[in-house]
Amino acid sequence: MSRVVVIGAGLAGLVAANRLADAGLAVTLLHKGLGGLQLGQGSIDVFGYAPDRVLNPIKAVSQVATSHPYAATGSSAVLDGLAYLKQELPELLVGDPEANYQLPTAVGSVRPTCLAQPSMIAGHVRDGAELVIVGIRQLKDFHPQLVAENLSRTVLPDGGRLSARHVWVDLPARDGEVDSSPVGYARAFDTEAFRIAFATALSPQLNGDEIVGLPAVVGLTDPKAWRDLAGKLGHLVFEIPLPPPSIPGMRLNQALTARALAANVRIVPGVRTHAFSTVAGRVASVTTAAGPGGRTYPADAFVLATGGFESGALELDSHQVVRETLFGLPLTGVGDGALLHGDYWGPEQPLFRVGVSVDDRMRPVDPWGAPAYPNLWAAGGILAGASGWRELSGDGIAVASAVAAAAAITKELS
Amino acid sequence: MTTPDQRLVMGEDGLAFAGHKLSRASLDACVKCTICETACPVSAVTPLFTGPKFVGPQAERFRNGESVDHSLDYCSSCGTCTLVCPQGVQIAELNSQARAVMKADHMPLRDRLIGKTVLMGTVMTPVAPIARAALKNKPIRKVMEAVIGVHADAPMPPAQSQTFEGWFRKRATPAGPFPRGTVVFFHGCAGGYFEVETSKKSVEVLEHLGYQVLVPKQGCCGLAQQSNGLFDGATKDVLKLCDDLRSAGKDLTIISSSGSCTGMLKHEAHEIMGVDDERLRDVGTRIRDIMEFLLELHDAGELPTDFSPIEMTVPYHAPCQLKSQGIGKPAIEVLRLIPGLTVVDSNATCCGIAGTYGLKKEKYEIAQAVGKPLFDMVKATNPELALCDTETCRWQIEQSSGVKTEHPIYLIHQAYGLS
Questions:
Q1: Range of the domain at B16
Q2: Is B299 on the interface with A (CB under 8 A)?
């Protein structure tokens, strides 16, 4: 029997499972499908806007309101989590908790993020930089002219300006394809032959010391593919994340999953966890919808890392009633009037802050502050009090709450 | 829902279901996140299949009867897309159903023949040496390829001189006592005719643990027909099989070492063909993959772990139809209880065969490309032995890597001192 069951395999679930396994606990990770990592940018946002652009994310973390998830985790769990990711995934994540990178996006805006992949950081915007953004004719999800022109007209966070132009390369990921997928390109870039062909097509179009911006498809399994390409071009290069499928996100997902497997986490994919049982006020087991009979997983502790509305962990019905779909936990942010207003471009929708509130050990609490179940913990997008997409705080909250929950469980069970 | 004594007849109903009830209801949950596209092993190796999102939930909206998109036939139905979908869209099931509708009025003879696993077994067993020789004979295989479209290099089942049932009936029946009670063994067609050793070893391990093993006379689960779109015959077969297995006794755990047939009983017959029948629900609830059963015993503290050491590093591949059962990879955890044994997870998506897909002459090269990373991994890990839970996957791995491939129960059997 596993001592801990983690439900959900997004960033929060994967970090929690890894940390618990590192602590020597037998862990089962149940998840419905792949988690959200490969729908993101493959970087770790800690705090991007508060509400103005954040330059020092850890400082912004320490200044949140008491209702914010970072108030429950504290700055130390954020720092702990970031250090852990950098240490465990050195080829995939670099950065400084005290200084956000400011990186070009696929629409030519500049986004703040805390940890980024080494293949992205040459894009950190600087006054006077000369960029060339490279499109690939057969990759329909990336528009280099849009990126270059928007970047050129943007006043940078430090007040400076850069210049950017765009060029095209005409090279299908596979022979005969006119519309190749980002994954197809990533697999092609994993091969030396494709990198040579790409460099051969691109090199004559590059000038001087231009920094080369590429769609983030430069290799999936070979973490050195982008360095090799940069060497072949003789220029600094950087990757710009695309809409899903996110290759940088896939890299993170695969690395954290492989690490969990290596740490002997029992991973059960493809199952929705839909029921639970209690004994004497504690969660005794959860049950998955595997086959007609389901499968039941008893444990000493449970981590709810199921995400928010987008993953079905929270549901809003037509009567404006919100429900946490597994445990029916008490929700914060639902009692103060309309959850949605009609002004699409107006102020933030109250709905986005709905979630579960937790105590200082990351256990969901009822409205009076008592734990809903003494052996149930929560991490990630299910937590109330943050608008991850607006603040660019979702990754940091996931990592910090997973680290904090894992620490509390480890203390409790040892 | 039908009651146990009603006989659900598919045919038109089955195809009506295929065009489109249960799975179709799930397609609105698709948010176009593309996660399935990133995981599909077929579109990764060929542009002939445009990917599960396009062919599945997207193309499905344009289907009213026959599909407008014939690349659908290149889906191998390995089920990876459904497994990775975070929104619960039954992508592979949609594809299997749409393919059944597409092929309904011009089903190739080959696809009818290779679904007839019992027929193949009964014909081959009495003439096993001849059948073995014939299936290894290049000119004969070339004729087979030309006439019925089964690729000359595709793996074929190994004909055996004795069926499992023959062995089970003729051997000295264990006298007991059976301190752990009684279980039912489901061998499946392959486990009855071709993978006889796997079935024997499974029974011997269960008896060693102290179970009385009942083997009721049993037919085919219909999986091979289902995967070829022959829902009518498959439905009749799976319900007949449920009757067979239920005849051994109420409430007994049913155990199988045939991973894919177990998946058919647990969920595929219901989710793909819409068989909604109390008998199927009953069997689907009681049945366990044998490695899943051993792991459940271990989790409950009831599995003896007095295993003899096996000093070996062995590659293990979890087949798609095991993964789709939502039980993780129980074999790895049970095998890791054997001292000295290092089990290396292939972490490969699919071996390519996907039931009968990789046998077909127009799909053979694709199936080989899908399995190539696995074959390379197997060869690099141990050139003598690989482990895998399902029959056709073992034949594929063995044929394409040249490495002997057995069911994980072989090493459990050995470590208990039974071989």
A1: 12-103
A2: yes
CA distance linking residue A112 with residue A144, whole number of Å: 20
If you write DSSP's letter for every residue of B287-352 in order, what string do you get?
EEEHHHHHHHHHHTT-S---PPP--EEEEEE--HHHHTTTS--HHHHHHTTSTTEEEEE---S--S
- Confirm whether B346 is domain-assigned: yes
What kind of fold does domain A121-240 have according to CATH? Rossmann fold (3.40.50)
Look up the ipTM and state it.
0.93
Chain-chain contact of A266 with B325 (C-beta, under 8 angstroms):
no
Q: How far is CA A69 from CA A204, A238, B373, in A?
A: 50, 32, 43
Closest residue in A to B90 (Cα) is A270
Domain ranges (residues) in chain A: 4-92+250-413, 121-240
Q: Does A295 touch chain B (CB under 8 A)?
A: yes
Measured between CB atoms, does A221 come within 8 Å of chain B?
Answer: no
Q: Does domain A4-92+250-413 have CATH number 3.50.50.60?
A: yes
Per-residue pLDDT band for B67 (boundaries 50, 70, 90) equals low
pLDDT tens by residue, A87-142: 999 999 999 999 999 999 999 999 999 999 999 999 999 999 999 999 999 999 99
**A172 close to B (CB below 8 A):** no
Q: Which CATH number does the domain housing residue B362 bear?
A: 3.40.50
Nearest CB to B47: which of A177, A269, A290?
A: A177
